[in-house]
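Exam review. A common question shows you a sequence with its structure tokens and asks you to describe the fold in words. Practice with the pair below. Do the first one on your own.
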Amino acid sequence: MENSMAQSFFRDIKSRELHGFRVKKRPYIADERLEPSQLGAVAVEHNGETSPPMALSFCKSNKNTHILAVTDESGYISVYNTRLNFPSSSTYQQNTEKSRILEWVAHDNAIFDICWIKEDTNILTASGDQSIKVWDAQEKKCVGALMGHTGSVKAICSHPTNQDILVSGSRDGSFALWDLRCSKNSSHRLCISSIATVHEAHVSPHGRRLRCRKAASMSITSVLYLRDEVSISTAGAVDSVLKFWDTRNLKRPVTQSCPSPDTSTEKERRLHGISSLSQDLNGVFISASCMDSRIYLYNVLQLEKGPVKTFSGCRIDSFFVKSSISPDASHMLSGSSDGNAYIWQVNKPQVDPVLLKSHDGEVTAVDWCPSEMGKVATSSDDFTVRFWNVQGTCYSNSRSPSSIRRRVMALPSMERKKLFTDKDVTRLKSTTQICPQDAALHIHSPEPTIACEISTPESQRSRYSSNFAVKENLDKTPETASRSPSSVLNPPSSLKRRTIRDYFLVT
């Protein structure tokens, strides 16, 4: 009886090692039946005057993902309900009146980027007036102004888990870190200063010689806060190089990567700037829209290899044309200067993309709905924003590229033998056995029950701290001593964890 139970247990462990856990896979758009259909379109206008849209973003929380925020060149924020029925007989203006939930003037200049934070209660806006503002979305009230850039703010991105922290990129050539809880000027409570700034992050080798082109060559066009919570990716208008930074040490980038097409020389590759960056929900892939009319896909753990996929077919003639990878990393969506939007299958980049046709001007900002599979939004210089359903008639059962799950590996033979022979209850610790949530795996056998504990890095740190009586004051900076929010970016060495920095040599 004992022998049969042991064999059954090890057969199960072996199956897990070879095939991983059987988890519910998130369905993604079917490869063969990608049939786009337009759900509706709204006109971007205010008091009868049209304005070209600049940026758009769906809400992030599941209950609000049908809500879309749009910014434009006139400095307005407009919020739309995309779940409404838009009759084909209705005009764009009628659709606007019907679906627009909120509208207000946020800046006196164009708004280049927008971001929902804090369960969609607040909105961040980046503007040509050199400021970033924090808005209470319900009250349409400014609750914070981030000042410090000396050029138009082109891009913003919030921290993946602590949304009081964000990064911004500007035309002045710098990117800055901000903490919404820090205000150095008590007389102006709404004004917030940056907690760290890196100047000339992307500088042209000829920038100092060509003074008239210096501003253009220095511009930061896109920033991303990576899922490891301490790394940042930046891109600029000067070249096609992606740089990666550790927020705990911003003196120099950790590593960098760029496309390496066989048909181009190194000099030619570096002349094309990047208009936008995006990452999938798991943070495995980063896409970069390049001014050579290609979109490059990078694996964050294989950056030294350059792009793992390349998508072509669209036309990127301006830095307003953006692209976005789908949350499950199965498809790539991009605007284009030819008036169409393009969708590629990530696993089949060589296959002709699906075209979303109906815009009458350059298609600029695009976005995927986080939870309504197959819903996308596109904006254009024709002063409209359009909603599409590209999911087709069914879903594919195959896995998307980023659906890889962490799995518990089979124990070494000696530990397996020890597991069934030791009389004492033993706690097995492994730095490679990590589960998304705190959990305990209980194994039933004729011997006393043995619990194999699998825990998150946070719980491991708590356990080790209690065992060794680590005290806070052993490794404190002035910031951590005062429990300042800025200490999030400078944790004690005992709390530092593996990040993207650990996978690359410092160059």
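Now try the second one, then compare your answer with the model answer below.
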Amino acid sequence: MPNTRSPAAFPELQLGALAPASPVEETLERIASLVARGERPLDRVADVIRRNRVVLIAADHLATAADGDELARELEPFVTERIRRAAALDAATGLLDRLGTDLDIPVWGIKGLSSRADYPQSKLRELRDADVCVTGADEALALADRLRRHGYRTDHGELPWIKQTLDGAPYGQYKLTGPSGFAAVDIHFGPGYSTGHSGLLPLPAPTVPGLHPLPRVANLRPMLGNSGGDVHITVKDVNDLWVAARTLGPAEVDALAADARAVVLGGHLADIARVVLEITRTDADQRTALENLIAAGPGRTARPVVATGLMPRTAPVRVLRTTGRAFGQAGAHTASLPARVGAVLGALAFYALPTRPRVVAAPALSRRPAPWRCVRLVPLELARTLHHQGADAADRWPGDPLAPPADPDTSAASAGPDTSAGPDTSAASAEERTGTGVPGGGLRWSAGHRTLTYGSSVFVSTVWGALPRAVVRDAGEAAR
């Protein structure tokens, strides 16, 4: 376990807090002292701020300080990059809102897309991707399909995946890389936010078509799930909890703590609350909420891993904590001891075995999703590329954008469907009939859950990365 030092040893963390506990001038004096003693060069100080994803907040604080110019110059390249990201994010969220409205699909903006609404200036909340959540897998694939018609491509480095609750509700994630000028989009779907190996934090279903921010208290669950999955705590997490704590009542504290315990993140939530109290300025209501979250956590916890540049050394901690939590997380789904032990072994195997997609001569086994069985979905085009060019060919795959939608101003479709030869049975017509932007057939699994089809898109399923050659061949022939 890494020898993670207290946040007090990193005064620069306070520069990233929305409401730092110490005056900015005092913090800069402490940083200058560290630099003068040779404990940490100024570029390393800037790197700690970057790792905590609070560059814009720090730059905002430094703009008010008399002695902040030197550190501000170190942050300038990061600030420029974040301004570019913000523009790309605005383009992506504008498109998501329009597509959600056009397809009649309600979409939650989660994590940063939610919490930024309560920041003093929304632009201060840094985001890399547009994380959104929809009700189910059909809506997720419909939204992904339409994004691919606007230049987006399935992210081959973080392939879509799907799990399933024991009562049959699918949940998972589909990440897409955007075209130039558009941020990546990460679509989460199902009854909750997946965390760790088999944890699921409940979320309310969105109800209004288009993109809307998830309510701030509900948004603490994706924040917690993401932070717990990463293992380390960032000042970004601290700020999100600080904002929500202003309106976090006793009943909401109890519900949040109970959900955190169910996914074995009660200690992690309490640790975030401790860091909030340590590096930020809080009012009485915030302190009460934070102290209650700490009291609701376990009495003894491991030291928090704060994002201070020790990332390479957190890898063994991540493996141990993820596998250790898997037993308790599986317990929220089943009382079966063999199933819970299997979840632990599966979590450990995920880190120990190669999982990169590759086409092999292997039997076509069933791959039914489960809370502790993550089924990866490999686009058929990518699977065929791997088949013909080898396992290292993923980076050469051109992606899977779809043909752009017809221009409603010039397309014949704008005049309405031609019904002279009977009813229109096209996919577009099916979307109109269902009223949800989801083709009438929805998702279609093949026998044994070996492939998944949605509209014209086919995915080959895998748990450990092995793609049976026969399945890839047969799926390709069926798709022609």
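Model answer, second protein: The chain is about 45% helix and 15% strand. The radius of gyration is 24 Å. Full marks require stating both points clearly.
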